[in-house]
Amino acid sequence: MTSKKSVNFTVVPDEPKDGEPVEKIYANFCAVSHTPFDFTLAFCEMPPLNEKQIREAPEGSTQTILAPVKVKLVVPAQLVPALAAALQENMRLYQESYSNVRWNPPDQVH
Fold first, then answer.
1. Are 56 and 99 in contact (CB under 8 A)?
2. Minimal CA–CA distance to 27: which of 95, 109, 93?
3. 103 vs 43: CA distance, rounded Å
4. Which end of the chain is more exposed for a tag (fewer CB within 10 A), N or C?
5. How far apart are CA 70 and CA 39, in angstroms?
6. What are the structural domain ranges in the chain?
């Protein structure tokens, strides 16, 4: 007869040793989509609008801005609640730590 054992694991990022660089990608826009199985986060770098684009846009119109995709991250649906909770907790800690930083959340996650 076999007995069941209980084991807890803690997973932590395995950072490179000896100053080995890790690729970092800047993104200031994120588009989110999903299937029945996973969520896709398309991280983009949205350039600022220039004066000409703003001036030439028809009043009351909706303009399309192309934001180049830098990376797509696909995560299983089961991971999303923990990811959302971790982001909320880190945002809370950020706001507590940097309460003097004025931050108006942009509408850049869709």
1. no
2. 109
3. 21
4. N
5. 17
6. 29-97
Contact 110, 31 (CB under 8 A): yes
What token pair was written down for 44? 């983009």
Q: Determine phi and psi for 13, rounding to 5 degrees.
A: -60, 135
pLDDT tens sequence across 27-82: 999 999 999 999 999 999 988 888 888 888 888 888 888 889 999 999 999 999 99
Are 32 and 110 in contact by the 8 Å Cβ rule? The answer is yes
**Residue closest to 105 by CA, chosen among 95, 97, 96:** 95
Which residues are CB-neighbours of 57 under 8 A, at least 6 positions away? 63
Is the pTM value of this prediction over 0.85?
Answer: no
Q: How far apart (Å, rounded) are the C-alpha atoms in residues 70 and 106?
A: 19
What the block records as the tokens of 86 is 């971790």
Residue type for 48, please?
P
Give the Cα separation of 107 and 71 in Å (integer): 19
| Through-space distance between the first and last CA atoms of the chain, rounded to whole angstroms | 53
